[in-house]
Structures are given as C-alpha cells and as structure tokens.
Design brief:
By secondary structure, the protein is an all-alpha fold. The chain has eight helices and no strands.
C-alpha cells in the first residue's frame, strides 16, 4: 500500500485530470461570460481555485516550518472569494490559467516538502486540491456544454 503522501498526491492527480479536461473543453471566449456559471465566470472560478491553492501552499509551508497555527487558517471565506474574483477580472485568461497551474505545482511541492504527513496536513491538502476541484466539476461541465 502507498504511503499517505503518495496516496493523496495520486488522488489529487486523478481528480485534477478530470478538472483540467473540463477546463480545456470550455472555449476561452466563454471564460468571461457572466451567465456560464451560477456565481462566477469561468475565469473568476479558476482564479478562486488558484487563490485557495496558494493559501494551501502557504499553510503547508508553515506546517513544515512549525509555525502554523489554527488561527492562521481562520479567515472570512466570502471576503477572500470576492477578492479572488476581483483579481481575476483584471487578468486575461492566459494569466489566470498559468496562475492556476503554478499554484497547483506549488501546493504539490509544499506537500512533498512536509517532513511528516499529519491529519491536519491531509485535511488542508485534500480540501484545497482534489475535494475543491470536485466542487467545481458540475460548473465546468455546464460551461463546456
């Protein structure tokens, strides 16, 4: 059986494959249309995913350094999501997608750098990677059709 580090990396990669396939199925000229998704444009949703991946990487880095505290993880989710959406509006589609890919790579790298895989690290990594991708699959399927 695989160790926890590898198991969760494999889960992330598996769900990412479906997520990426759906993202790439949405024509770029639809990424900024307001009626493609219930709450966001595709571009805003993708930058939202990138933003949470970046925060995940930051939390994992603090876990590695021994400076993480639960209060670091507490924040206003709605406020952050609004900020991510605002940032996305000022970006072009290529910059958003490049940012998503970079944020994913960073979160995976920080996961690999952890000296120990704790339950809290698993919770952080899972919730901001493969569980989060799954939350947006239906939106992407609608956008791609």
């Amino acid at each position: 059986m695989n160790d926890l580090r590898t198991e969760h990396l494999e889960r992330e990669a598996d769900v990412w494959g479906d997520f990426e396939r759906l993202v790439l199925a949405v024509p770029r000229d639809r990424w900024e249309l307001p009626d493609v998704m219930p709450e966001w444009t595709v571009k805003e949703m993708l930058w939202h995913v990138a933003g949470w991946l970046q925060l995940c990487a930051s939390d994992l880095e603090r876990m590695r350094a021994g400076t993480f505290s639960e209060s670091d993880a507490l924040d206003d989710t709605d406020e952050r999501n609004a900020t991510f959406a605002d940032q996305a509006r000022a970006m072009d589609a290529d910059a958003v997608w490049t940012g998503v890919l970079a944020a994913r790579d960073l979160a995976r790298a920080r996961w690999n750098e952890l000296p120990e895989i704790t339950d809290r690290a698993i919770e952080e990594f899972a919730s901001e990677t493969y569980q989060h991708y799954k939350e947006h699959v239906d939106d992407l399927e609608r956008a791609a059709s």
